[in-house]
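I hope you will forgive my troubling you with a question about protein structure. I should value your view on which stretches of the chain appear to form regular backbone elements. Here, with my thanks, is the record as I have it:
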Amino acid sequence: MAYLDKRLATGEAPLRREHQHWFVLAADARYAFIAWILAAAVWLLSGVLPEEIRSALGWIIVALVIGGLLYLGWQILRWQNEEFVVTSRRVLQTQGVINKQVVDSSLEKINDAILTESIFGRIFGFGDLEILTASESGISRLRMLRDADGFKRAMLDAKHELELELSGARPMPGPAIRTGPPAQPAPAPAAPAAEPAPKMSADEITRTLASLADLRDRGAISADEYEAKKADLLHRI
């Protein structure tokens, strides 16, 4: 992990890392197992052979055992140094024991991820994850990845967070808390004083009452409306 930390950008942080399943290690170390099987077969065969031949076969057995151990150790180092990492900016694949290689794909260029799990993969916890990006370069397929489903979720969550950061989306701040006394409502403006009704002469009032009585008789206004108008006119004398 120290090798990867030195190659992260400013502000970039690793979020999830995984290795391939140990089945991959067992498959890559098959020649070590074959060497040990051959060593066991030679040892059993040497029991029925002459002494001078057994001496030569002993060195062959030692070479097969030591060679198998060295080959297994090398494969373990390769398996440990090949890891897949989700950061806040990229998905990286690091590999190599002596000569290092780092392949990365930017999260913003990832369009989709296809997860494939066989029945054995669901039982033993591994799967293949195919990453579809907008460019031809970068990581394309993660084979026999441990907890591939969890790795996919971590990658999509990191992509979502990056998109929110790039778009500037942030939660709206809450309402400000007032610590002082509550503000008093502004006083309502005073209603303008009603203007007094203009005065009318006795002749004008008589003519108006006659017109109102004619409207009442023709049914244009009701008797109550007539009495109300009459009282109003009498107050203007």
Remarks:
- The mean pLDDT is 80.
- Helices lie at 2-5, 22-28, 30-46, 51-81, 119-124, 148-167, 202-217, 223-234.
- The first strand starts at residue 14 and ends at 18.
